[in-house]
Amino acid sequence: GFKRLFFDFSLWCTIACLKKIVTSVKWLAVMFAIVFVLMVVAFVAISVNLIVKYFKYPAASELKLLTKSQQFPIFSFCNENPLKRSLVDTDPAFAEIAKMIKQFDDYELKKITKDDYGIGGTKMKMQRMTRAKIMLRLMMNKLSEADRRRVGYNFTELVSQCTFAGKTCTSADFTSFLHPDYGVCYSFITDRVISRPGADTNLRMLLTANQDSPRFTLFDFLPTTESATM
């Protein structure tokens, strides 16, 4: 009957204490039975508690944002056009550059007269542009620092608006330097320290690339400058 079935099951099963209950003397069987009942009660209590907690969907989170003061990174910008065309064409100090630019213009307009700089050595426009840029870089390198700065762009010509950490910044917050390709460039002074992330400590700038020329008939960009960008 059921008693015999339970006895056989208890002998070969691996449930804790169950085999000891049916094979031990009476007093020891009682002890194992008590332990077994306590284990079952504990198992049921723990299971019920876990199920109840699961369906309550409890959540506990603690968010900590740890920030350390750090130096604001270096930010530099340049106008892609290194020299103002209106000044290059009229200032004797830039006569050689003006001559090279004129020959490049004439070649592109198929008004070829001379080719003193090897610009017309290829029929491919990109290669002619590359050659003209190389010659411009070499000629700019021969100029004095004062001349290069004189025909470059000053801070107010490039920057329309500037704020750092919510405060207006001016040219005094930047240092200028000469780039071999882009002429006069500017770097944000890097001794600023920020202590927290976010928009409140950002550097925000509105930069303007102005192509207008005092001569009205021409852009004030060199023909070797491919786009009005910073």
Automatic annotation (TrEMBL):
It is a multi-pass membrane protein. The chain crosses the membrane at residues 28-52. One of its GO terms (molecular function) is ligand-gated sodium channel activity. One of its GO terms (cellular component) is plasma membrane. Keywords: Glycoprotein, Ion channel, Ion transport, Membrane, Sodium, Sodium channel, Sodium transport, Transmembrane, Transmembrane helix, Transport. Gene3D superfamilies: Acid-sensing ion channels like domains. It is found in: Membrane. Its main location: membrane. InterPro entries: ENaC. It comes from the Eukaryota. The keyword Transit peptide does not apply. PANTHER family: AMILORIDE-SENSITIVE SODIUM CHANNEL-RELATED, DEGENERIN-LIKE PROTEIN ASIC-2. Belongs to the amiloride-sensitive sodium channel (TC 1.A.6) family. This is Ion channel.
